[in-house]
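To the team - flavin-adenine dinucleotide complex, inputs and output below.
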Amino acid sequence: MDRHAAARPRLVVVGNGMAGMRTVEELLKRRPDRYDITVFGAEKQVNYDRILLSAVLAGEKELDEIVIHPRRWYDENGITLVADDRVVDIDRQSRTVTSASGRVAGYDRLLLATGSQPLLPEIAGTGLAGVCTFRDVADVDTMIRAAREHRRAIVIGGGLLGLEAANGLRKRGMAVTVVHLMDSLMERQLDKAAAALLRRELEQRGIDIRAGSEPAAILGSERALGVRLTDGCELPGDLVVIAVGIRPNVDLARLAGLEIDRGIAVGDDLRSSDPAIFAVGECVEHRGKTYGLIAPLWEMAKICADHLAAEAGSPSAYAGSVPATRLKVTGIDVFSAGDFRGDASTEDIVFRDASRRIYKRLVLRDDRLTGVVLYGDSRDAGWYVQLLRDGARLGELRDLMIFGQDYAAPAASIAVAAPAPLSPPTGEARGRRLAVARRRPGPRPARKRASRANAFS
Ligand SMILES: Cc1cc2nc3c(=O)[nH]c(=O)nc-3n(C[C@H](O)[C@H](O)[C@H](O)COP(=O)(O)OP(=O)(O)OC[C@H]3O[C@@H](n4cnc5c(N)ncnc54)[C@H](O)[C@@H]3O)c2cc1C
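Output:
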């Protein structure tokens, strides 16, 4: 280490996962020489794309294909990586962290990026062999091994992770049953219409769905043998995957006396209640919200890096994110963003083309887009998310946007140039909209025809 480097402040990162390493990457872009960086990771691996664990399970990718930062990235950037060594204590007085192996590292700035822990239902048998969650490489290993040796799997939880696990195990040849508490799959991301389409498609792939069912116990004495439901029904299974939700991993922060509610409380600068300690990712609670998806974490990473890079604060501020979800089951196109539930103050624009299994629902409040559900055609997902984020009045765009950006984009420029009033359009505006509609080359004529015939409800 040269003389210059020795004088640098020390940044310690706890959590070698997606949010932590993205923040480091953003920091290196801004000020590569600002800190001496040490990263502690509880997992054995270097930082990998957790999202793609579903693709690994489905046999579509190998583990080494999902690595984001190989060892040499840490080396090339002078980062000390301490893998497979969980941090167990933070001493805020002496500004040190201690790991499970007894390693002590001093910090000037500490970044907590400890992610989430899978929730476990309070039922007997969750500790049996053959029971796992779906969070990391070790879980995927367990599932792949079980698929080689056994035939039947039960997945508890019909949310995004549960369904991706079910799909992967089915593709590996297992007979799979999904046990889901609610009547509707992915009820936090999809409305009932989209969920019904999804269920049908999964059932056609041979996945058995038990919606509205509650597990009472995992059967077996050493290994899992199945699941008993509260109605007494017993489902045989040699592998039980639990995917019923996550909770922010805050134990370490709590022990250190940081302010915590559901997650580590941070301000718009991603600083915790201790100004020397920042936090990003799923472990964070910002303005009362926690996030379990990647896009918000990327936004946090940028703002946090701005503040870590600055000598004396930065004007950038994190203002919260619009959550967006895409199911990664090959051949099934499902997307949702924002708040799609709606209430008395919202209106829906719905497009339904049953024969092509396409369903789209846009939820609007006060002439602004607040939620989107797309099934069967999510090409315009990015555009809708942009409209959600912008929160601008839709004006002329309102009537056309369900057909997608290609079709409605010229109207978008009108909406931007002259924000529409909340009241119905004037004769002049109406005329302009018709002109726009006539001018349009109609790249998706099938949709347009469907719209006039049966699309709206
Ligand atoms: C199978 C799967 C599929 C997913 N698919 C999607 C998707 O399609 N779209 C999407 O937006 N999101 C998806 N997600 C969610 C996304 O992966 C997470 O939002 C993201 O990984 C969270 O990043 P993080 O850095 O906060 O947490 P993590 O990536 O979990 O990183 C936290 C790291 O900190 C480590 N750690 C915890 N405590 C300590 C400690 N005390 N000391 C040292 N290390 C510690 C953990 O071991 C972990 O490695 C998926 C998640 C899974 C599991």
